[in-house]
Amino acid sequence: MTTSPSDLAVVGAGPAGLAAAVAAAGLGLSVILLDAGERPGGQYYRHPAPGLGATRPEALHHGWSAFASREAALRAHVSAGRITYLPHHHVWTVTPDSGESPGWTLHAVAGPDEDPATVRARAVLLATGAYERQLPFPGWTLPGVVGAGGAQAMLKGGLVLPGSRVVVAGSGPLLLAVAGSLAAAGARVPAVVEAAAYTGYAAHAPALLRNPGKLVEGATYGGALVRHGVRLLTRHAVTEAHGTDRVEAVTVARLDRDWRPVPGTARRIPCDAVAVGHGLVPQLELATGLGCATRPSPDATVALEVDAGQRTSVPGVWSAGETGGIGGAQLALVEGEIAAHSVAGRPVPARLARTRTRLRAFAAAMAGAHRPGPGWTGWLREDTDVCRCEEVPAGRIREAVEDLGARDARTVKLLTRAGMGWCQGRMCGPAVAALAGTDPAPDRRPLSCPVPLRHLAALPAEPPAALSPELP
Amino acid sequence: MSEAMRGRRRSPRDLVGGTAAESWSLRFDDRELPAQSGQSIAAVLWSAGILAWRTTRETAAPRGAFCGIGSCYDCLVTVNGRPNQRACLVPARPGDHVTTQEGTGHDDLAV
Question: What are the pLDDT digits (tens) for A236-260?
């Protein structure tokens, strides 16, 4: 590499990364912003490509102005040469530089031809966001069963719906937003099926009362559902999707406190699509590849440990947004700005610190309320595929645990191939861990996306830390 | 009141307004599907009511887009003869020929 390193490389142009990049450039840093997507905004502010000609993209969003102002700032910083914005760059590993100038090299695959790209920076900020948590049920591999976030992403980005009668199911506040936007876009939503009881929030009344904005947001979604005639069934779950080539109906059952389906409560709801999701999982592979410390979250996912300045445990590496625990776009924006101040060596403005503390408290209350109960595995049948990629049914995983003595998801993977396919356990990981009787372990994926072998062959002979074979 | 009496239901387009810069046909297997500039291949297929465009390696089960953001790899498809492209990420382009992908999409390499 002959180019001189930037002050800061930001990975991810969602709310956290975008806010961080813009704020850091405003504080005088030279910034490189890399993003796997084609346009800034991440999953939350995903919006149609310009060619689709939407004149009111904000109709699909909550808090669009927070994005629009930062996108305008991004464009201004790019023209002024303060930010280098690299869309369509998927960073697959970050390696520490050796030698006299300490810093980092970020390795990416770029564009449709998967060209190799590397950039260097003195500091790295990981704002890699999250993906959806899925808990399998019989029939969940049928066409027409899609992620709730997936349905939302396809609607926001492509202006399409998976069907005309869509049951929204799973757990977490995203379901209300998804149901609201599907209904606003013309789908009929017979029911939102929420496994948790909203009374779970009551235990956290102080966190709720300090966040009136969040309550208003919830009420807005609730109001939209009422207007569109959507039924909200709490403490219920979709326990089976029916159909042969595509979904035609679902079975919905009441759950006990542990999320075990209550016998005799099953009923059928006809539909032609199901949008399902059980909260979000922080996307941590770049961070864990660098050795950043993690912590368990109240929603039973694993998040990064960060300090008051958004520093991870690895000096020179910062993180903001969902990587530090699921908390939503507003928190991500605030944490991105905090990280920018911290990287720039400035004090964190008290206003930002206070807002983060308040929103983090709300996020913790929410996470606890929607943590999956242990009884959900009660709706799996022996032949229900848990790993979608390798088509590994629950029965084979139970056999690995009960007969072959597997005690964790990794051993289950080695015995059954669950988690060994294309998605590298992103879809089945939480379910396999639950069946193995353990909490999910931090992501350990040396490559965060598929990488052509020629890129690996082009790496320096010394294996970077992230590729060294020290696995548990 | 029936659907017909109320008229056409709202659509995502009604919600966001405007019109696409360009429309053309995308070739999918032996069909021609209406496509708009800026849509991913998965979005073109969904708007034609097609939810499956791949069969799995083990049981030849039909699959299509699931996560919608490039994480799950369920939406793999063959585009212009190149297999294993994530339909939810790849923009549809005029002249593309998209084909249902069977298994790994690499049957030609089988021995």
Answer: 999 999 999 999 999 999 999 999 9
